[in-house]
Design goal:
The chain has 280 residues and is mainly beta. It contains two helices and 20 strands. Strands 1-2-3-4 form a four-stranded antiparallel sheet, with no helix packed on it. Strands 5-6-7-8 form a four-stranded antiparallel sheet, with no helix packed on it.
Length: 280
Amino acid sequence: MWDPAADPSVVRWQFSPLGDPRYRDLRPDASWVYPCEAKVRVHRKRTYVLTTASFGFVAVVAHPSGRRYWGTALGPGDDLFNPHSAEILPDGNVAVAGSTGALVRLYAASQGPRAERYAEARLKGAHGLHWDGARRVLWAVGDDELVAYEVGGTAARPALTRAFAVGLPVGTPGRTPGGHDLFPVAGRPGRLWVTTNAAVFQYDTGSGVFVQDFAGAGEISRKSVKAVGDDPRTGQVLSTVPERGLEETWWTTTVGVHRPTSTYRLVGGGIYKARWWLPR
């Protein structure tokens, strides 16, 4: 049970741009609404948390200082509105996926904390991103397909080229598969977790096949999984699925853990995604 009011020690670290002068220009009062991504990355030996919020906030935040590496705010008039995921690349640039705008955008974030130049590519329902260092491609998942983009140009003037795409496994007949989460399988390099409206899969980047041969698949794979990931130290898998009766239809108070089965429950919470803390 996570109850910060009763036991503040359950909070190891927290971030909010509200009232923080380092993020004032991103208008967090308007843009920091419905945070929908938080994942940890190591870039040039520094640890960062990448976060997005549905009303347009995107930032790469230094841990633990909260210092701004880079950030932007996308208003309702921006084609990328409703950012769902972000990823930092080896050159320091930052990719952002926007579901409403159906775009993957690569910002020249290496040029400074307020850099605005970008390259972009269309992707219907863009929801998740992952940089594949072995293959040197940016993976993105959308409504219907998993796509690999090659990154070209320069750090100051990046370019995105669609290199490869594979259709997502069909779920309910007549409906889009609804690709949602995309995350590396920590315990099996070369595989990606991919969730759809109907199920949870792993995509083998070597064979180009979606599989469900992972341990615990019968329990882990189910409808509407918003986030999934494994801890390579224990083999445990976590996932989040919306529960009824909360303020928003995509929220849950519970993070499910599999192998063995257990739960983390946030008192008064509205959780969308959950991640293991695995700097890499």
